[in-house]
Amino acid sequence: MLFFNKKPTKSNQWLKKSYSQSGEDLIVKFIFDNLGISQPTYIDIGAHHPYYLSNTALFYELGSRGINIEPDPSLFKAFLKEREQDKNINVGIGVEKGLADFYIISVPTLNTFSKTEAENYINEGDYRITEVVKIPVNSLKNIIQDHNSGRFPQFLNVDAEGIDELIIRSINYDESYPLVICIETLSFSSSGSGVKNTAITDYLTQKGYMVYADTNINTILVKKDVWQGKL
Predict the structure, then answer these.
(1) What InterPro entries does UniProt report for this protein, alphabetically (predicted)?
(2) Which end of the chain offers a freer environment for a tag, N or C, measured as fewer CB atoms within 10 Å?
């Protein structure tokens, strides 16, 4: 958990709390505040941990409720205890309902359904695949239908290590869509030489989104007509 202090005072009245890696939750909160939405609903794909490096934990603390999707059974347990008022689902996202190989990496933040991505981690030199397990997967459409009556939550957070673009392209934006998206767009590199996946932002721009902010690791986008209509 990080604290950003705009102006140090004894009363700490300017303190702002952030659980995100680079303050993404504060940026997203600013967008929703300006849209007049104080408690946005959310779906967090690849949620990893209830609070550590979470882009939705701040909203949970402020009264928002949503859906957390975490495929790793060992990581998932914490959500049942720490985010019990959310809908917590121990599955991965796939094209359809079924089972898929899930690569457990020596650093859990890198766990992935992508064999290519897992092999890339190994090539970095400091990581290893500790286990490959079969994990249930379901389509994003099915999950939203089953757990949110088919209505897309207002905030979509995606950190799915190698399948982020697949998830984004699986959404039917003509039916229901998030107002704000925060998605990892930088490929992993322990040396800091990661490459931005511009295909993701290009695709979302075509679907009516505009890039609001970029923290290098993540890109934050907002539905353009909604943003422009509120300002």
Answers:
(1) FkbM_mtfrase (IPR006342), SAM-dependent_MTases_sf (IPR029063)
(2) C
